Amino acid sequence: MAREAGPAVPLDAALDIRLHGTIAAIDAQQWERLRHPGQFCRHDYLLALEQSRIACQFLYATAWREGQLIGAAVATLWSLRLCWWAELKVGTVGTPLNTGLAMMLAGDDGNTALAGSLIAALEKASVARGARLFVARDFPAPHCCGQASLDLLYRRACLVLQQADFAAFVASHPRGKHIRREIRSLEKAGYTVEIRRASALSLSEAQRLHQLWLQLFHKHRSADQIEVSPAFFASMSRLPHALLLLLRREQQIDAFDLCFILGDELESTYCGVDLARTARLSVHRAMGYHIVRVAYEAGLRRINFGISNEQQKQEMGCQFDGLYARITASPRWLGGPLRYLLRRFVLTPTTADGASQQDSRKVAG
């Protein structure tokens, strides 16, 4: 994808905002100096996403002063399935695969004017490419970066690792006996968990992970999920911060979790399972505890478990962070009908005290 060389959008005499169609057009060192270690939007990660040809188009807005990158934001364009016969082209800040605000601001330039200008540039570019809806998402508070009228989009489950090690975590957990039993159930069934870090998958392994992921993709049919290919898993496995948990029996992979180490946090991003071969086992729950074990062994302090299966993650001991969004339609008159559809199918319902009633719906757009 070629970089767009449009005219700069000045904020003041020394500042301009530029649009790019690929992360390759942006200097990796400048990008990484701007990125907080806990943010998912690493330069190498975004480049790998682009090269894996997932079903979305990438856009980048960057802010420059005197040749230095002082602000950046990522957006993607993709199709949201509203029902079996209707799709909606959507532009969102971030990617359909990750949670967290995909915007970076340098030190003293962490102001609402710069943030608003980056988002406005991405919204304008998205609409120009046919997006009917633009979602500036994953703000950590209902009033943030000068954005008004933010909706609660979803709640992200995060587990803070407070004990000294995994054994202490299990010993102090109210469900400690259940945790040991669920882990042993995999061992009794002949399974072992292989841990790989920054280790490339073979072609057959990437194809197997794709098959396992497709089983959950077709089972849940989430409106916001986009389809990926075996190349996606191959590309992700080669990244230096990638961590894979592979559940094996008789040399065959029957489940996996794809995670990424981001600073002192582990992000659990993608998973898959052979529903037939593991039908009698609590694979998701047991693999979740193996993720906790691996995080402790790596010296991490927090796990981002994402936005699905809230009840299970609450039992694990997770806290829930609300992430908020501003949603606009193009043309504006579509806002009413689209908001109704989003509230029905996508936005997280809340109780009077602001707590989520969402149980298992996954929203990534």
Explain this structure.
This protein is of the alpha+beta class and 365 residues long. It folds into two domains: 9-155 and 321-345, Gcn5-related N-acetyltransferase (GNAT) (Aminopeptidase, 3-Layer(aba) Sandwich); 162-300, Aminopeptidase (3-Layer(aba) Sandwich). It is 31% helix and 31% strand. It has helices at 28-34, 43-51, 112-128, 166-172, 176-188, 203-220, 230-237, 283-297, 310-316, 335-345, and strands spanning 9-12, 15-20, 57-65, 68-83, 86-93, 103-105, 133-139, 151-160, 192-197, 242-249, 252-262, 265-273, 302-306, 319-329. Strands 1, 2, 3, 4, 5, 6, 7, 8, 9, 10, 11, 12, 13 and 14 form a 14-stranded mixed β-sheet that branches. α8 (283-297) links the parallel β12 (265-273) and β13 (302-306). α5 (176-188) crosses α8. The longest helix has 18 residues, at 203-220. The radius of gyration is 21 Å and the shape is globular. The two termini are 22 Å apart. Residues 1-11 and 349-365 have low confidence and may be disordered.
Describe the structure in brief:
The chain is of the alpha+beta class.
Q: β content, as a range?
A: 25-35%
Provide mean pLDDT, rounded: 85
Q: What is the CATH topology descriptor of the largest domain? A: Aminopeptidase
The number of distinct β-strands equals: 14
The CATH architecture classification of the largest domain is 3-Layer(aba) Sandwich
The shape, in one word, is: globular
Return the structural class.
Answer: alpha+beta
Please summarize the sheet with the most strands: 14 strands, mixed
Just give the CATH class of the largest domain. Answer: Alpha Beta
Rg, nearest Å: 21 Å
How many H/I helices? 10
Low confidence ranges: 1-11, 349-365
Q: In CATH, what is the homologous superfamily of the largest domain?
A: Gcn5-related N-acetyltransferase (GNAT)
Q: Summarize the helix and strand pattern as letters.
A: EEHHEEEEHEEHHEHHEEEHEHEH
